[in-house]
Design a protein that fits this description.
alpha+beta; 5-stranded mixed β-sheet; 37% helix; 29% strand
């Protein structure tokens, strides 16, 4: 079972690709695992953040990176937002950006598939 990895927009992709080499390498390994085994890998690779939002936990010699994603019916994973962690707790501002983008995807899906029940559009495991 292969999952298709997509980015919310090109800016998200280029931002994550600009991370320090070690952190980006850790991110890439986790994304490869998600593509092969599915989006709910669990700790220490991914963490459920609630309401269908998940976090990729990337580590490198330079520090820690986080990327938020959701997944959709049709084996698609959408990477919504990424940042380099500077504090112990996940900054609320970063989480808010990811949740806003997740809502935008839900809204867009409702426009494309207005007759489908809401729960069929985005998987919600957490």
């Amino acid at each position: 079972m292969t999952f298709n990895i997509q980015y919310f927009n090109p800016k998200v992709r280029s931002h994550i690709e600009s991370w320090p080499t070690g952190i980006y390498a850790g991110f890439s390994r986790v994304v490869e695992q998600i593509a092969e085994f599915g989006p709910d890998l669990g700790m220490p690779y991914t963490k459920a953040m609630g309401d269908g939002l998940f976090e990729i936990r990337a580590r490198g010699a330079e520090g820690i990176g986080r990327a938020f994603y959701c997944y959709l019916v049709g084996q698609r994973v959408i990477i919504l937002h990424g940042f380099i962690k500077k504090t112990q707790a996940t900054p609320e501002k970063e989480l808010a950006i990811a949740r806003k983008r997740q809502k935008e995807i839900r809204h867009a899906l409702r426009q494309v598939c207005p007759g489908r029940p809401r729960h069929q559009k985005i998987h919600r495991r957490a």
